[in-house]
Amino acid sequence: MAKASEGMERFWRTFTVAPTVVIFLVLTALPIASLLVMSFHSVKWVQALPQWTYVGARNFQALPQDQLFRDGTANTLLFAAAAVTMQMILGFFLALASSKVARGTLVYRTIFILPILVPGIVIGAIWKLMYNYDFGVINQLTGLLGIAPHNWLGQKATALLSVIVVDCWHWTPFCFLLLLAGLESQPADVYEAAKVDGASPWGELLYITVPLMLPTIIVTLIFRLIVAFKVFDEVFLLTGGGPGTATEVISFTIYRRFFTEDRVGHGSAISIITLFVISTLIVLALGAARRRGREA
Amino acid sequence: MMPAVKRRRPGNPILHSLLLLAVIAVLFPFIWIATAAFKTQIALLSGVVVFTPVLSSFQEVLFSKTSEYLSNFLNSTIVGLGSTAIVLVIGTMGAWSLSRARWPSWVMHGVLGWAIVFHMIPPITMVGAWYVMFRMVGLYNTYAGLILAHLTLNLPLVLWMMSVFLREVPMELEEAARIDGASTPVLLWRVIVPVILPGLVATGLLAFIFSWNEFAVALNLTARQTATVPVAIAKFAQEFEIQYTQMAASSVLSLLPALVLLLLGQRYIVRGLLVGAIK
Prior knowledge:
Chain A is mainly alpha-helical. Chain A has one domain (59-295): MetI-like (MetI-like fold). Helix content of chain A is 74%, strand content 4%. Chain A has a two-stranded antiparallel sheet. The radius of gyration of chain A is 25 Å and the shape is globular. Chain B has two domains: 2-58, no CATH class; 66-278, MetI-like (MetI-like fold). Chain B is 80% helix and 0% strand. Chain B is built from 13 helices and no strands. The chains are: A mainly alpha, B mainly alpha. Chains A and B meet through helix 1, helix 3, helix 4, helix 5 and helix 7 of A and helix 1, helix 2, helix 5, helix 6 and helix 7 of B.
């Protein structure tokens, strides 16, 4: 009896986890393996079936000369660094403000999470209209200040900045939410003690809040930085990578090489490099987070 | 008691005006796109502030012969509901097995670790391989194909969130059910699921919204018949003569499901976002 039920238990624990493992193997591990294989081939479609020709490391060797790949990488790094820095600063002060007010935290929180729930492509559509040279509200508002209308998305100088502003609108709420949760879980007695000792609001912020919040801040920052590499939807709609390569990001380069130019091998090579770099970053970050957790 | 209240007072007007400014910054784009959707193309292009609202853009988007928006809406609904239902079942079972069924720790860490890594890599890196695979087996441009892709993208989130919610189920409850002779399916369905129901709702709402919003994968795995709402909206921007007011109207319409879900399950969504992002 005991033996039989133990056997059943073993069966059920395998049965319940099996779909997850199968999905991961077939739809994540296998595709990554096939990307690796494709990156060493040139692939042509003949009657809906791929024809593979082995080309060695040629796809990888071509990458350093690929202007789009180089600009895409540089822009992605710049975009991620600038956008996430802004989001963290804005998110932190908003979280601090709404944790300090006595009333309305729930209302603020509900309104602030709205952008997270909106499709990226719709955010792109909204801002594309707002940035429009002729009738966009942004030129109307700057016009009130006496500034001449500007082609925000069409000029090299402002295109990437304009995309960064949109990304801040989209993702500052996310930083806000995480940082607010961190602030709300802080021990109250430390603040009481600080008040008794007569700490000024700025002193309290600098010497108590920031140090206590540092682990939350670091985790949020790293998480947002890595996820910022995903940016695709807004760029697709707002600028399509242009003008020139001013807003070319790595996701868009992969899309372009793979789908619009049908260079499957080349696109796979960029995917593989991107996957390698990002998963290395993730593993390093997780390792650091775990070590921090153990020390604390 | 008194000093705590007093300390908050002086900062309040400044803090509230700062927060109010942020509220305006968040809400303004929504309001602006909504007004644009009710303008005629001429009214929009001339940039007037006062205008007579018209429904022509909505009518054009929803009912004109050339528009496929209703079928896009239906496609998004099918893919969203299908992928959410399946991923909840798979992910909940998986999370239960990994956290409760005494696997060696490398199995648990292996699967959950892979889930985190996969959750953070850009989906666009995977799409090329999915495209090649799906075309070979006939899943390209089918509901099944996009449902598979979306449930794969959402599986890490569901595994993660359900593990957190399962942690709140007392082990004694499970042991008591076992002593009463409950088999695993009975235990899961009759004991675990009722307890974690709020967690399931929160997770399901987020999974549906993320599937509804997803663009990069849907763009490349669908063609005309299965195109989802974001793919349809992106088409507007690529046309030679952009129908701005229709683009605005279809954007507004695409926000309705998320808005309805937010109104119905605000509490669940906030909790879900926190659990999904932090733990």
